[in-house]
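Marked as duplicate of an earlier ticket. Keeping the data here for the record.
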Amino acid sequence: MDEHRRTLRSYEQLAEEVGELLTPGQREALEFGIRYKRMMTDFWQWVRRREERTPAGS
């Protein structure tokens, strides 16, 4: 999950710094990456919370 967070921060920083300079296709690809990493981060947080609530061996 840490790697997803690092990559997300990197993509968001890139979008902020040069987003307006990208071609529409490049910007769409970057936006896809941002949304994908957000989804992966949310998913793994959900898994972690679920594991914390589920007794071992269940």
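See parent ticket for discussion. The chain is about 80% helix and 0% strand.
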